[in-house]
Amino acid sequence: MKAVITEEVVQSMKQNFLLGYNMKEACEIEDISVSTWRHYEERHPDIRRKRKRWQAALEKQSKAILAKKVYEDKDADMAMYFVELAMRKETKKAANEVNRATAAKLRAEAKRIKAETAQINGEAGALKESTTIIDDIGAIEHAKDKDVKDD
Fold first, then answer.
1. Hey, where are the domains in the chain?
2. 3-class secondary structure per residue, the chain
């Protein structure tokens, strides 16, 4: 794998991102490791910002082309596609909100159970101590009785 990132590699990575490749795929094509590219981005923050734009470019261009089909060509199928896409996004958003609420509820329940368990363990420990004290008192009383009988 290449360890040096040249301007040529940067331009090639740009093309890979513009074509829709993810970070791992783009790095594999250029025969560099993902960590090498990330280190390069750390030293060149402007490249990181550009990469994010490059990665978003394909999706933005695709949206523009699809919007043109709806607005200019009055393509009903394309319009229906966008309506269905919006519905799927809304459904996913609602499901995520339900999942987050469920997770929060489960965390709160686990915290409550943990607190109750600690309280029960604390009470059990106190009960064990009092039992030990009672046992010790019983042993002392038994020893006194034994001493009295021995006299």
1. 1-70, 75-151
2. CCCCCCHHHHHHHHHHHHCCCCHHHHHHHHCCCHHHHHHHHHHCHHHHHHHHHHHHHHHHHHHHHHHHHHHCCCCHHHHHHHHHHHHHHHHHHHHHHHHHHHHHHHHHHHHHHHHHHHHHHHHHHHHHHHHHHHHHHHHHHHHHHHHHHHC
Q: What is the pLDDT of residues 52-108, one digit of tens each?
A: 999 999 989 888 888 888 888 888 887 888 888 889 999 999 999 999 999 999 999
pTM of full prediction above 0.85: no
Retrieve residue 97's tokens: 């909100």
Do residues 17 and 51 make contact, with C-beta atoms less than 8 angstroms apart? yes
